Amino acid sequence: MSMKKLLLASALAIASFPGYAADNPRKELQDWLAQCSNPETGEGCPEQPLSKSARAILDRCNQAGDEEAIGKCIDAPSARVTVQPPYHGPPPIGWVYGPYTPCANPPQCSMGVVNVQADGLNVRVAPNGPPVMALVNGTPLYPMDKRGDWLLVAPACDLTPTWAWSWTAGVPLNRCWVYF
Fold first, then answer.
1. Among 33, 74, 95, 115, which residue carries the largest CB count within 10 Å?
2. Mean pLDDT of 86-101
3. Does residue 81 lie in a domain region?
4. Out of 66-70, 91-95, 128-132, 136-140, least confident range
5. Residues 106 and 170 grouped into a single domain
6. Reported pTM
7. What is the mean pLDDT of residues 116-120?
8. Cβ neighbour number for residue 149 with a 10 Å cutoff
9. Checking DSSP bridges between strand 150-155 and strand 121-124, what pairing results, if any?
10. Which domain holds residue 161?
């Protein structure tokens, strides 16, 4: 058991040199260990450095303990990780009553504009939920989801406060930022 650990420790020392990046680090490590003339003593192992990925596997397997556990660790396939691609649009700000925008039926339209007879269109945390802000007429919106007459929207411009409040809901009134 101690000879195997010595072999793995020497392989780790050799692997600390910068090397090439392998497409399959487990295969690279298995091939490297197979080229050793005496795995028990570490003699005859190639001087070719291992990639960082193969070194990490070797180090992790070296902590496994006995020879059988180390062998299983080296031969075990890597876990696959699936990463969801990031969303590249603006985050949604909340729900608005769809009939107050010309885009009340997405995805037939890709953008709507606030059009109300009051001092602003209320943006709510949920359909018919409590309002968190209001938007002035002319504010462009991207519809993202629809539930009944309610639209989940993202702003199509940078929003800024008007420093006024919606008189109907008592929430801050926002508009598009104007760049000069």
1. 95
2. 84
3. no
4. 66-70
5. yes
6. 0.50
7. 79
8. 13
9. unpaired
10. 94-176
